[in-house]
Amino acid sequence: MSRYRIPGHGRVDHGAPVSFIFDGKTYQGLRGDTVASALLANGVHLMGRSFKYHRPRGTVTAGSEEPNALIGTSRGPGRFEPNTRATVQELRKGLVTESQNKWPRLSFDIGAINDRAYMLFSAGFYYKTFMWPKSFWDKVYEPFIRSAAGLGKSPTENDPDRYAARYLHTDLLIVGGGPAGIASALVAAKSGARVVLVDENPEMGGALLSDPSVMIDGAPAWEWLDTSLTELRAAGVRLMTRTTAIGYYHQNFVGLCERLTDHLDTPPADAPRERMWRVRADQVVLAQGALEKPLVFDGNDRPGVMLAGSAQTYLNRYGVRVGDNPAVLTCHDSAYHAAFDLADAGSRIAAIIDTRRDVRPDLTDAAAQRGIRVMQGHTATGTKGRLRIKSVRVNPVQDDAVGKPVEIACDALLMSGGWTPSLHLFSHTKGSLAWDADSNTFLPDRRTEACQIAGAGRGLWGFGPVLEDGVNAGLAAIEALSRSGNPRDLPVQNDRLGTGVSHTELPTDLSAGKAKAFVDFQNDVTAKDLRLAVREGMRSIEHVKRYTTNGMATDQGKMSNINGLMIAADALAKQPPQVGLTTFRPPYTPTSFGAFAGYLRGQTFQLTRTTPIDPWAEANGAVFEPVAQWRRGWYFPKPGEDMHAAVARECRATRASVGIFDASTLGKIEVAGPDAVEFMNRMYTNPWTKLAPGRCRYGLLLGEDGFIRDDGVIGRLSSDLFHVTTTTGGAARVLNMMEDYLQTEWPDLNVWLTSTTEQWATVALNGPNALALLKPLVEGVDWDDFPHMSVAECSVAGLPARLFRLSFTGEVGFEVNVPARHGLALWTALIEAGKPYDICPYGTEAMHVLRAEKGYIIVGQDTDGTVTPQDAGLDWAIGKAKPDFVGKRSLSRPDIVAKGRKQLVGLLTEDGSKLEEGAQIVLDPNQPLPMKMVGHVTSSYDSAALGHPIAMAVIEGGHDRMGEVVHIPMPDGVRRARITSTVFYDPTGERLKA
Amino acid sequence: MTTQKHDFAAPVQIEELAPAARLSLRVRPDHRAVLADALGLDLPARIGDRAASDGREALCLGPDEWLILAPEAADLIAAAAAVYPTAPHSLTEISDREITLHLSGPSVLDLLATCCPRDVGALAVGRGCRTVFDSATVTLWRDGPAVFRMDVWRSFLPHVRNLMALAEAELATGL
Amino acid sequence: MLLIHCPYCDETLPELEFAYAGEAHIARPVDPSALSDEEWRDFLFIRTNARGTHFERWRHIHGCARFFNAARDTVTDRFLVTYKAGESRPDLTVKESAE
């Protein structure tokens, strides 16, 4: 049995010892312990070193608000986590933990030299200390700060754990499974509403777990708790433990992080470690309770100094006495109960030091009965003890005068600066707070969401009032749900009611300038820092916060915000409400990145779309590239080929005989209805009225601003039916744009749009032998009337097909569309039939080269959203006789018709080198810096057909500069290039007529 | 029984259904009755409502949009074409656009809740909806308290299946 | 994540099913060629950028696929009302004074 464990006491399983390792040493704890409670049971208070000064620190709290006891935990390879709060981490077999921020060891830490250099590290030191000489920043200061800063070590391996996510819809979400939350749930569950009750702890009960002597509804607290939870389960209430509400967003959207496996000795394979719940609740009850405030005095961070309520929790919940002779320092009645419980459990209370002169007689009587000395009207002015408190320095205070000190020996100091409601989630909703002068704290005021706040979370104290409030909150919630419920009387006996006062720093007889009276333990911010910040001109609490980093630690000010505000307000000589509170930000407690990522990592990180022909490409060694959401075959290297060789071969083979290409990703939209042609005329720049059924045309789509949005070949299948193709990346966008016009501008048109992108698999055949290959496989096409730019519904290789004759290569070309399920069959049939012609599969890179040789643009590569049809040399695609189409009016806007717009041209380098896409172009390479850039290279390839590289570029006034030489400065020298037409290959289109 | 095809104790079962004819019907509400007559199928006016007869099913997806399922497409297309002059519409075959999953089992709502932000549990048996599963648009048909069909665009299917496999493994752990 | 009431589906659904579609009640001119350059510029680019009630368009993209209109408070992010495309701007003064 551990030295400080009380046999049979608390909620831990005394029959189930669990051993674990802390800093290399094996300790015994019990099932139900946290690392902190188990270490305390072994008499270990020293658990870490502080952030800035490397001061020895012990646990201050018993919950998720812990600022000090941050440890590294390891659950196996890749499963190291820094900054785990020892007060939250449950014991499990084989758990390995270590302290942080120390070297060479926790008990002797070289970094503690910072503590001696306290004056150097005061508020804003970051902004002052490292200012000069300027040259020191890169080489000296920054490396120093980088190595010294940070808490714990970052994990170095990929996280092998799984994380999960779930949406949850409910009528009522209750946050906090303490007495108020349970009371709310009891009345709400009876109404038939769907109720979810969550608590961050391993078990429900909240403050009841720390106060078993209270009687509720005639039963001891823990018996009432069991009965109530049984009732809730029976009523179908979803009880979620180890689940933290981390953020509260619009319209009652609450994020919950559920910890599933960290407490298990052997987690099931495939079990997620954590699950992020995204909850939508019609009503929310916030019953999060209150947080105890530390007192601010010199040495208040020494190991052994902790919150009184937490000591009570360690005692009653874990059966652990935090010391043999603890002293108590308080300004609130609640700490007396901690002292009484500890005294009753066998500790000798060194003294109760109360800052108040007047204390309730029943408390002083109860202390006297236990032989506890109560020192009323006293202050604490210091503590002693290197790695653990040995004594506290106490002085009487009379009329603001601090009297002579006495030293009181103790091995722990239990402090209570009073309680403040946990306002974090409420603040996330931008609910307003009101200052309550009586309790010196902020209370929730105006709500912005459909929520109730119950219990200690709105400043109530004592189990009776809190339970009653919980009942009322539950009733209010179900009434808001238009359900009815009945009040429930939950009488309380042995209640522990209480009040207190509030302080800034405690008064002292010592130099305030030398006091290390901590306000934010985790960020090592002292009262002196806050006053310095005010002296140095910080007036807003937000500035004070950032200058001192008070409240910016991972505990988000749970310990420090109110104390910091009181001190800043005092320094500013203002009332706290005039100074205001800084913003609490989500998450409520530190949350793993894995929980946020959920399933979206690895293979499921993001959507990858594949075509029906993808399996063939994969089996045939394709190298893939992502295009929009798709993965596409980039090139098909043969053994020994690099990309350059493979692409050159694919291009040559296509121009020499026939190439085959998976074009299934092209967007396809069926435009059908009596007004289809009118709709096409309005959407696209081109005229469509005279396009005969069975023919197709290149279509150009602009935005209303006149800039090119998309393009593609469009076939007219019948008078009322068009088969529109879009770019791969534009499919969804174009359909959305068309639907927008159709639904909101022209709802009178009788035309409908259907996405058929995935209905069809599309295979392109290009090359001089494409026709010969295809012809024998096709039925239902009159070849005498099927010239370039035709479309027919027919059969290909025995499959129902829509056959387009078109070309994106300059060769005779076809696109065969078959129902997607047949895509692979069509592809393999064409490959087989193409063998006599040495058919060559080519990928997107060869496709790009072949189209660039012909000067065909790629929207989004050669255009960037500021390119008009004129800029791109596509004036011919504009139906000039049409009265209107989307974007037409913009084509005559002054800046669109102005001279000097960037226009698409071809570029050929004089030295035959290949340009880099994105390279900037200048007219005079000898001009002074910064040079005027007149454009950039949009496309650049090695052309196998031409034997030299080709490029396209947008250049100011480019169309009027044909033949001129421009310059492209590159790191290795300036290239010279001549402006040419964009059509590099077969400019007269002879090959199409073959 | 080692040859057993399905593990009926599994929290969810996911099966791909064989393809059937699937069509998208778009028609103005005032011509709805004409098309319903022609197709021999009620076309419910309320979004999410379904109708079925003779192995044909219709699901209203929008104020002028119905998803039609049938064993064969040709008859329907011909029947609709006959009324086109008086009741102009669009009837587009999309049999190959989506693949249909059959989802069932006691944890099927949990499976859907991993990636569907809407309250799928609130979808009444016998109704359907178009919604989103992670980043994929899907059509859900609720055929029973714990039985759904989900139409997924073909190219999105691997992603959807990968996500479902993760959820299945998770549900099997009972955590 | 907001909840949005789709006036076509008559259901209140998660924002993830919807796509934002810009300011509402900016009708495309019947005859753009009749507009001056300044008028056309205003149609293209000038938006109210309201602080407070903003009339805007959404599309139930992963649902019924309809575009519709909404009045939303840009300060609180709260939707005041949603209504079908083509319907005129609702009078919100009545609603506000009732609150």
UniProtKB/TrEMBL annotation, chain A:
Keywords: Oxidoreductase. Transmembrane segments: none annotated. Residues 515-598 form the SoxA A3 domain. InterPro entries: 2Fe-2S-bd_N, BFD-like_2Fe2S-bd_dom_sf, FAD/NAD-bd_sf, GcvT/YgfZ/DmdA, GcvT/YgfZ_C, GcvT_C, GCVT_N, Sarcosine_oxidase_asu. Residues 615-882 form the GCVT N-terminal domain. Residues 902-986 form the Aminomethyltransferase C-terminal domain. The keyword Metal-binding does not apply. Belongs to the GcvT family. This is Sarcosine oxidase subunit alpha. It comes from Paracoccus maritimus.
TrEMBL record, chain B:
It comes from the Bacteria. SUPFAM superfamilies: Folate-binding domain. InterPro entries: SoxG, TrmE/GcvT-like. It holds the Pfam family SoxG. This is Sarcosine oxidase subunit gamma. It comes from Paracoccus maritimus.
TrEMBL record, chain C:
InterPro entries: SoxD (IPR006279), SoxD_sf (IPR038561). It comes from Paracoccus maritimus. It holds the Pfam family SoxD. It comes from the Bacteria. This is Sarcosine oxidase subunit delta.
